[in-house]
From TrEMBL:
Name assigned to this protein: Alcohol dehydrogenase
SUPFAM superfamilies the record matches: NAD(P)-binding Rossmann-fold domains
InterPro entries for this protein: ADH_Drosophila-type, NAD(P)-bd_dom_sf, Sc_DH/Rdtase_CS, SDR_fam
Complex and partners: Homodimer.
Entry EC number(s): 1.1.1.1
Domain of life: Eukaryota
Keyword list, A-Z: NAD, Oxidoreductase
Length: 240
């Protein structure tokens, strides 16, 4: 598994759950190096080889392809790509779209070079982290919500192209989760200065509860699924 942003709030707990499984390699790509977290993941299950590469999802597509060449040369086989990078700050319009959507599209596009069965590739599985805001917008953060709707739509298209590419795809869409992402953030045009505070009044789930359902979704590996991970539960939703 290659996990983009596997050291974030939900990401790190998901990485902890993944290494407990019968996994050969977990390759974490993240903007910030965290040697203590990598050491912890290695200690959970010494049978899993955990490696880290610095990676910023806003890097150009050519740079992403170059990094993946290095990883594929090392591992030979990669089965799953998890795209998990995300920011929540509607003051940073271009960066929100670049991190939440463009970066995810680029990483997906780059890995198709190695997986696409039309090029002799073996196929693969893409798991994209969306958000419940992708189909139920938090209207005070329309840029963030729209970027997550784009993730859901893009992933549905990838899933429908599986018969051509051999690459299947699905989204996991967390509800409000106790992470640093939601402690304090800016609404679009400051339409609601207390948006983080108001969000905090709603029921939330822990990152661990979300991570456990996240890994279940990966194990189920249902092409085209839109998983809603909210309040410690997992539900496949219909979205047309």
């Amino acid at each position: 598994i290659i996990f983009v942003a596997g050291l974030g709030g939900i990401g790190l707990d998901t990485s902890r759950e993944l290494v407990k499984r019968d996994l050969k390699n977990l390759v974490i790509l993240d903007r910030i190096d965290n040697p203590a977290a990598i050491a912890e993941l290695k200690a959970i299950n010494p049978k899993v080889t955990v490696s880290f590469y610095p990676y910023d999802v806003t890097t150009p597509l050519s740079e992403t392809t170059k990094l993946l060449k290095t990883i594929f040369a090392q591992l030979k086989t990669v089965d799953v790509l998890i795209n998990g990078a995300g920011i929540l700050d509607d003051h940073q319009i271009e960066r929100t779209i670049a991190v939440n959507f463009t970066g995810l599209v680029n990483t997906t596009t780059a890995i198709l070079d190695f997986w696409d069965k039309r090029k002799g590739g073996p196929g693969g599985v893409i798991c994209n982290i969306g958000s419940v805001t992708g189909f139920n917008a938090i209207y005070q953060v329309p840029v963030y919500s729209a970027s997550k709707a784009a993730v859901v739509s893009f992933t549905q298209s990838i899933a429908k192209l599986a018969h051509i590419t051999g690459v299947t795809a699905f989204t996991v869409n967390p509800g409000i989760t106790k992470t640093t992402l939601v402690h304090k953030f800016n609404s679009w045009l400051d339409v609601e200065p207390r948006v983080a505070e108001k969000l905090d009044e709603h029921p939330t789930q822990t990152t661990l509860a979300c991570a456990q359902n996240f890994v279940k979704a990966i194990e189920l590996n249902k092409n085209g699924a839109i998983w809603k991970l909210d309040l410690g539960t997992s539900e496949a939703i219909e979205w047309t």
